[in-house]
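Record pair follows.
FIRST:
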Amino acid sequence: MTACGHISKVMLTGLAAIITMSPVLLSADRAGESGKAKIMPPPVGNVQVEDAFWAPRLKVYREKTIPHSWNYMGWEIRALKAANGLKVDGDLNNTWGEANLYKFMETCAYSLAMHPDEQLEKRIDEIIELLSGAQQPDGYLHAYVTNAGKTPWDPAFLDGSHDGYVLGHMIEAALEYDAATGKKTFLAIAQKAADQAYEHFLGPNGVPGFCGHAELEMALVELYRAVPNKRYLDLSRAFVEWRGRGKVKPFSETPRAYFQDEVPLRRQTALDGHAVRAVFFAAGVADIALETGDCDYRLAANRFWDSVTLRRMYITGSAGAREEHEAFGEDYELPNDGYCESCAACGMLDFAQRMFMLERTSQPIDVLERTLYNAVLHGISLDGTTTYYRNPLSDRDRPRDNCWVCCPPNLSRTLFQVGRYAYAFTNEDIYVNLFVGGSCTIPWKKDPVSLHVSTDYPWNGDIEIRVAAEAPRQFALHLRIPEWCRDAGIMLNGRQMTPLPLTDAGYVRIERPWKNHDTVKLTLPMPVMKMQAHPAVQSCAGKIALQRGPLVYGFEGIDNEGIDLHLAANSRFDTEHRPDMLGGVTVLRTRSKDGRDLTAIPFYALANRQNSTQEVWVRQEGARPDTRWWLAKLYRPIE
């Protein structure tokens, strides 16, 4: 372990209070990769999803969500045409709307990587041509600012603007379009815009500052990985270092914590403020730690991670409890009717993936899986055409809609990345993090390897992984054992592995010369678990939630004669897979205290039939807060 190796998460909050502020270092790398082999996810196009759960969903997003989303691109495309000097009819976009266009283009790029489509590619190329024409000579590109005659990176409105947020999403879309098609024009436009930002902030006449909506920080690091120009990493780091130092003129009375600007990074002991901005900011901090090995950034990323996952996250993986400022609440402030914006859940996946790559333990992937299968999937309807901006755990007759503020294209671009979340690799390791049926080709230059996965996950925990290799290849296969699984089993080529080769990182690790057709069978039993919340979460006192495998369940009024539920003290649960219901779901059946039959369905499937009441946490007779030994847990099963 290096000098800045992972310190016990319980110690981090206390340590944060005594960390002294380091000097601002904008361009000096410290420890690099700290001697570790570089870890990365595979390209989206290297993963073929062919199971009964994810494959139909990706088909819906490809065939329904993308065509539906074109209906909401009019403002942005008109704005680009106007910025090209063309006459247009109709309203133009606003300060943040252009990011929706780029998130949608990123969605299309992932779809093209998996399923080439000449017509879709042609439509995206037409937008790229408009982007080229709208770009200013110095590289600045934000059609809204150009059309409105506003000042780029306006220092009097920097925390209220979305210049950096828009640019960040443009960079990410350009990177993925290049990866999917090999076409370089979009990436060249994004690089030129990033170079303009560097000159504006860090050039000879640069003025310190940062966009009020974090996102550009992690996009710049992603650009640096693809195009190793150190100025992109330096600019990302500058945006982090300048926070909390009075570098941005406040535009309003909004608290500075809303922008992660109350105190400098090394004095930030919790993740505060606007939840979406905060998790994007934290992901950027983790990205910089990955690329530089900087101990201060690694410690900060871990403080932020613990702040959210141990004290401020819902059981579904949602984050951001308060409607005011769309913000995190205090520790354990998790009302069941909390705000829970979809974009915050999407950002949690970005943050979790980076924390996994930083620490290489299973716990961040446990959170990623929880958030993906519950909060993120709940955000989009089963037919892929309506979404939720908010995802509370207790809801009343609230329909899904087409509120294109920010969430719809964020949900689609996130869900198309399920294959990227499922795997990671170094030059000598393969990690299987999510259990998605299909195949993944690891892009090793010498002796490439493919994994073929067969499973009916998340409905059962039987997973078969078969190796396909032209020549034997020595590597370590790491299989995540989820936190919810108490009794995993594993067989290698038909022989039981006893004892289970489980590491402290939460993975079964098997290192050997792998040959073609070598087969691993992993068994993850999925009993129904009655979950309890930390006793400091007052909204859940005397209540339980149900979880089976990675799925959190909820009760919907239309299945349960209303929703005034009270479970018996020793309630038992039967499971039934219903292929005819909600696209195919496993339901839970039990009886209430007064003898009524009750049915629970996965949280993600709620509100897909008609408006009704919905509850995740329900009363159970005799349930009382359990105050015994809650170290490093926010939710746990009732033994």
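SECOND:
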Amino acid sequence: MMAKAIVAKKLKVNGIVQGVGFRPHVFQLAAQYQLKGTVANTSSGVSIHIEGSIDRVSSFTTDLSAKCPPLAHIVEITEKPQAVQNFSDFRIITSQSDLAISTLISPDVSICNDCLRELFDVHNRRYRYPFTNCTNCGPRYTIIDDIPYDRPKTSMRHFKMCTHCQTEYDNPNDRRFHAQPNACADCGPRVFLLDRHRQEIVAEDPIKAAARLLQEGSILAIKGLGGFHLCANAENSEAVVRLRRRKRREEKPLALMAKDVKRIKQFAEIDSEAESLLTSIQRPIVLVQKKQSHPIASEVSPRNQYFGVMLPYTPLHYLLLSEDFTALVMTSANLSEEPIAIDNDEAFKRLGDIADYFLIHNRDIYLRSDDSIVRHAAGASRYIRRSRGYVPIPVFLKHKLPSVLACGAELKNTICVTKNDKAFLSQHIGDLSNLATYDFFKLTIDHLKRILDITPTIIGYDMHPDYLSSQYAIAQNDVIKVPVQHHHAHVVSCMAEHQLEGPVIGLAFDGTGFGPDGTVWGGEILLSENHTFKRIGYLGPVTMPGSSAAIKEPWRMAVSYLQDAVGSNFQEWSVPGLKDIAPEKLTTVSTMITKQINAPLTSSLGRLFDGVAAILGIRSHVKFEGQAAMELEMLSDGRADGLYEFEWQKDHVFQVPPAPIIRGVLTDLQSGVSIAQIGAKFHYTLIRLFADVCVAIRKDSGLDRVVLSGGVFQNATLLSGLKRALEQHRFKVYTHEQVPCNDGGLALGQAVIAAAIQCQA
């Protein structure tokens, strides 16, 4: 019988294929099909030279993607015929460098079940070792300094593996083969417990000792995967109040961490969608409905129907929570609006007045990454904050773009860089009005440019002249600078997710965005394409008395909407939200409105929510962004029905005056209608109103695709109601599922728009 002809191929695999067990997968497949050759990591992914019979090489190539490891994600496999070199075996060889870096980096992921079993197995050499990991789990993005993703280019380079760990690392049949953070208690990072004066608390087990301190009511700063958490016993009201006071976080909800879903069910309602999110390898914070009766301190999430809760995602978390807590507060370790601490020295300097004790370790974090926040709403998972666990997985675009850097917004900042048909949105950066956060913003840009080998030729930024992100962009040299309108970016960010090309009807609803006409936009209907937009409708503008002060003091917006609706005699009406405001203040603000003194015009739907919340007496002042609107939604009774009268005027554009709705709210208030019913009618009115406007726009334009974007769509009642109403009118409705609808997703739209505008130039 004639021997089968031997062929050789060079395979290049691009995607998330480093540090996820992909080379052992290749090695084992080659052994299964009795093939010879080599496999190596490169700067562009994984390179394979394979030799054998044509049918076995074909089967190998098919199984390469069909049976890949759980954390691997293959984007592309290219094949080229090669000369047969008659290899004697199949080997994993040293990483190689290419000219272009295009490999994808895995996000940080939670500890896997295999490592978790070892963690609590008294007979395993990693019993209770808080840095247990393998190729299927553990840190990635936050410990990488450069690629290829090899140990010398991670923060694990400071730890020389012991003989046992090195043997695992070198064995292609071991699940720790080339697991770059591989370590054990003999050779790896260690945990230390110290007081706020940096004096070590000597303990046989620092984690058990830390748990005792938490049970006694202490506040701890705990170093995790992407930064420090501030931690307290969630059942201890006094400890939670003390944490809030020290952190200067008066009312914004605090995140919780519980050992397992069973524990969470003691204090929250968990449906199948929430459980799926909670138990995913990303381990985000998930918003879940509170139970009416529960053991969690009321101060954790005051005046809120939801808890933000997550499951443990590091071995250290599991060890801590095994000490019989219902839940622990696990909130970002910072003062309000600052970035989270990641360095030990930094933590003691910044958190010394907040934490009583510090549970630290000696593995460096190279890049901070806050916990992600998600919820299930309107039939899909929705990001509120996309960060740890998801970044740096890219959004795949419809077309290849030039290299673009988009600088994002001022609040909830993220940045975006593009490479070919991939857009890399950064982890959550935060509020750039804080200098430390601005430094983090610049560091993140440099880090992503380096690890992705991107030199942007175009830079996109918000039109607002005062945003630090915009000022950064304008100051750059040797790059094409493209200003992008805020709400256009919102709409295009959602279009990019769904690989849409315009035109579409875009509803961009948020709190604040700079309008080209010099007013504050935020209730916009845009006819949108990637390279351009036309404002075809908007919420009728009113003034913002005091400008930014009106955001923190919604009673000012109440006065503005009332004066717009019923005139300057609004004080004759019985308005709950104005009872505690001094008459002279009301008169002053009324005068500011009349004379347009420090009172810019706004079409913002977010401000309308604030104004109605204040009129109803829900919130005259807020402690965090969106608080008034959030509480209005939560107090609304979904069982109520009815609509307020509404109207719109159309000249060249559709203008929707808020006055008829405000008059309806006032009438109901005077008639003794409950806040819950008024809130529900307000939501239903907006849903009906904007659905009807879209129907009218379709008659004029023929467009039947509607894109919903902007921070107001974090309101699940509005999102689900408007989506359903539009679909009933046979519109195709597109919403955010890959990036946040708020400003955390804005940079994606900026990047696509900036590239499109430049291509049109």
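COMMENT: The first strand starts at residue 6 and ends at 16.
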